[in-house]
Write a structure and sequence with these properties.
Helices cover 62% and strands 16% of the residues. It is an alpha+beta fold. The protein folds into two domains: 94 residues, OB fold (Dihydrolipoamide Acetyltransferase, E2P); 259 residues, Multidrug efflux transporter AcrB transmembrane fold, CATH 1.20.1640. The protein is elongated.
Amino acid sequence: MIFGLLTFLAFFVPAYPVSAQTQNQEVSYIERARVLQVLTQTIQDVPGTQTSETVQTLQAQILEGPDKGKTVTVDNDRFNLKVGDEFYANHSIGGMDAVNDTWNVQEPYRLPTLEMLVVLFVLTIIIFGGKQGIRGLVSLIASLAVIFYILLPGILAGYSPVLLSVGISSFIIVIGSYITHGFNRTTSAAVLGMIATICVTGALAYWSVHAAMLSGYSSEEVTYLHFATNGTIDFVGLLLGGIMIGLLGILYDAAIGQAIAVEELKRAAAHYSHWELYRRALRIGREHIGALVNTLAIAYVGVSLPLLLLLHFTDMSIAATINQELFATEIVRTMVGSIGLILAVPLTTLISVWMLRKGKPSDTKSEGHSHSHAH
C-alpha cells in the first residue's frame, strides 16, 4: 500500500523522465522506448555459474527523451520482452572509448500497472472508508509530501538524519492524527503517546545501531547514493531515520486504538478509579500488542525472504551469517520497531488516563461522539 501511495504522490512531483550522470566522461540517459522487433534471441550460459539467461537484440523506437522518435538497436539480457512492450533504456555515450554509443534495457515500463493499483486503492478507500477513509488518505498524502519535500531535501542538504527523522516523525504524527480524527483530548493523548514512544524508541535505536557497529551500508542503493553524493550523507543516521519512519504506520494504529479504548472505558464506567481504568485499558492493549507485533515481524520477514533464503546457500555458520551487517541490520530494525510498538501501549494508556482524569462523563461522551462521528 505504501509503495502504491508513493507512486501516487510521485505523480505530483515534477517528472524528469531523462536523467544523466557523468563519470569518466561517460554520459548516460534513461529514455522510454517501445519494442518494434526482436532481431535475435538466444539462451546463453552465465559465466562462472550453472544458470542460463535469455539474451535479446531489439529494434525499438524511443518514446521519451533526447532521442525521441529515433529507431535504435537495444541489447537486452535482463527481461524477456516482446513486440509492443515498453521499457526504459539506458543510453550510454563516451566513457573510455570516446565513440562508445550503446543502448541497454534497464527496466520494463510498469507505471500503467502501478497507476491502476493506486486508482483501485483510492476507490476502495472512498467506497468502503467513507469520510474517515478520505481523511486518512489526505493525511497520508500530506505525510508523504512532508517526507518528499522536507525530509529528503534536508538529508541531502547535510542536516542530521536522526534529528530530521525524529522531528518529521513527530510532525507527521500531529498532522496525521488531527486531520484524520479531529481536535479532541483523545486524539491529543494518542499524539503525546506516539511522540513519547518515538523519543524512547529513537534513543534505543541510536544505542542499538552504535552498539552493533552498523555502518548503514547494507544494500547496493546505499553504495550508489554514497558515490552520487560524494560521501556527504551520514548513513548511520540515515539508517536510524529509516527505522523511525518505518515505525510510524504501525505505531499510529496502536496509539489511536489505545486512546479510544481509554475513552470508551471511561464513558462506560465513570466510577472506575484511575488505576482501574489504566489496568483494564492495558488489558485491551495487550491483546492488540500480540496481533501487531506478529504483523510487524511477519511484514519484515516477507520483505526479507530473499535474504533469508541466502541462509541455505552459504558455507558460513548460521551465527557468522546472521552476524553480517545485511542480516544484523534487519534484526535491529525488527527488534527496535517491535519494542517501540510494545512501549506505545502503556505510554499512551498512561497519558490517556491522565488527560481524561478531569473529564465528566458528559464531556467525555461529547468528545467521543465527535470522534466516532468522524469515523
